Amino acid sequence: DAKTTQPNSMESNEEEPVHLPCNHSTISGTDYIHWYRQLPSQGPEYVIHGLTSNVNNRMASLAIAEDRKSSTLILHRATLRDAAVYYCILRPLNDYKLSFGAGTTVTVRA
Amino acid sequence: NAGVTQTPKFRVLKTGQSMTLLCAQDMNHEYMYWYRQDPGMGLRLIHYSVGEGTTAKGEVPDGYNVSRLKKQNFLLGLESAAPSQTSVYFCASRRPSGSSYNEQFFGPGTRLTVL
Fold this sequence. Notes:
The complex is a heterodimer.
Chain A: E1 9-13, E2 18-23, E3 31-38, E4 45-50, E5 55-56, E6 61-64, E7 70-75, E8 84-92, E9 104-109
Parallel strand pairs in A: 1-9
Antiparallel strand pairs in A: 2-7, 3-4, 3-8, 5-6, 6-7, 8-9
Chain B: E1 4-7, E2 10-13, E3 19-25, E4 31-37, E5 43-49, E6 56-57, E7 65-67, E8 73-78, E9 87-94, E10 105-106, E11 110-114
Parallel strand pairs in B: 2-11
Antiparallel strand pairs in B: 1-3, 3-8, 4-5, 4-9, 5-6, 7-8, 9-10, 9-11
């Protein structure tokens, strides 16, 4: 299975944008890119996903490189509630499962 | 709409004891999953089910059994608990198609300590 590489941690100031990188150089053409986040003492929650094109939703934006070997999750205005572990996950087409790595721990400073 | 619920929230067992963790979802989802999360690590898949009456092994199935007798429930059993099974257990569910089918919905977790 293709793997992802994320920084261990990132810090941001409140109300500033956060750009979370994810490298997936061995991604295959039918792998979806998923992002989940896990707030302290809670279960993970879905953030966004994409295949080839950039995606936006109410929580975040996902920018996917043209060669698909990397992607960036963008939180447009970080709040204290966005402090969490963010997981970048590749899910092959027709695979039911998600494989979580260690993720990136995001700290937001007031 | 409660989403995904897990029972119990906390449990302490002695080595060798058995227990069952219950996961329930009211979203009529076909797929259900059990994960464990050890301190400082990501989630690892234990077992999963793609429909009532079906189960399959995940990444770390040893020492666990599961059953999916009803669509809305997914049970995780520990027959003889070991300290290595001390962890936080998360259940999740997902629909196979339609809107938001790419999204797994997670429960709040069960914190299990085996002494």
